[in-house]
């Protein structure tokens, strides 16, 4: 038996369909959740920053050590301050670069700023937009990730439906939709 927040997910009622506009924040959440499907799980997103930090610290620390040796043991606080400021700058640069790449990729999507309609039926999730529509069978859903602001329904490691909290009429409708999908699939919603 699957359980969600203390409720038994045995016979959940079919939730009503939802309609919403697919926003950049939905795309960014799906992109980050896709990274969670990687080798390191949820930590995958932050590992890239650790790699940037390690590279930067190796390069700049070598310079600080050389400066320290040149002055024969007296500490050079200017080099240390520069190293820390450079580290902070690099982290900000990496975050902005990731955001810019995501923004450019989002603009190229057919679903960007499109109205999306999802209906939960007995055979699967029926989805439609202005120029596209389709059905994903319940057996085709590989994973469900539930966050406080959205439910991400993965049909592969790279493709997911984003069900934002704002598309539901209430918190109960949001929770009921998650429970219903859990009962229809063999996956449980991961928090």
Task: Please describe what this structure looks like.
It is a single chain. With 191 residues, the protein is an alpha+beta fold. The chain has 2 domains: 3-22 and 114-190, Roll (PH-domain like); 41-107, no CATH class. It has helices spanning 24-36, 44-70, 77-107, 171-184, and strands spanning 3-4, 7-8, 18-21, 115-121, 124-128, 133-137, 143-146, 150-154, 160-164, 189-190. The chain has a 4-stranded antiparallel sheet, with no helix packed on it. The radius of gyration is 23 Å and the shape is elongated. The two termini are 17 Å apart.
Write a short abstract of this structure.
This protein has 191 residues and is α+β, with helices and mostly antiparallel strands.
Mean pLDDT: 80
Gap between N and C termini:
17 Å
Oligomer: single chain
Shape: elongated
Q: Helical element count? A: 4
Radius of gyration: 23 Å
Number of domains: 2
Q: Which percent range fits the helix content?
A: 40-55%
Determine the CATH superfamily of the largest domain.
Answer: Pleckstrin-homology domain (PH domain)/Phosphotyrosine-binding domain (PTB)
SSE topology string? EEEHHHEEEEEEHE
Can you tell me the CATH architecture of the largest domain? Roll
Q: List low-confidence stretches.
A: 1-10
Could you please say which CATH topology of the largest domain applies here? PH-domain like
Q: Could you say which structural class the secondary elements and strand pairing correspond to? A: alpha+beta
Number of strands: 10
CATH class of the largest domain: Mainly Beta
| Binned strand content | 15-25%
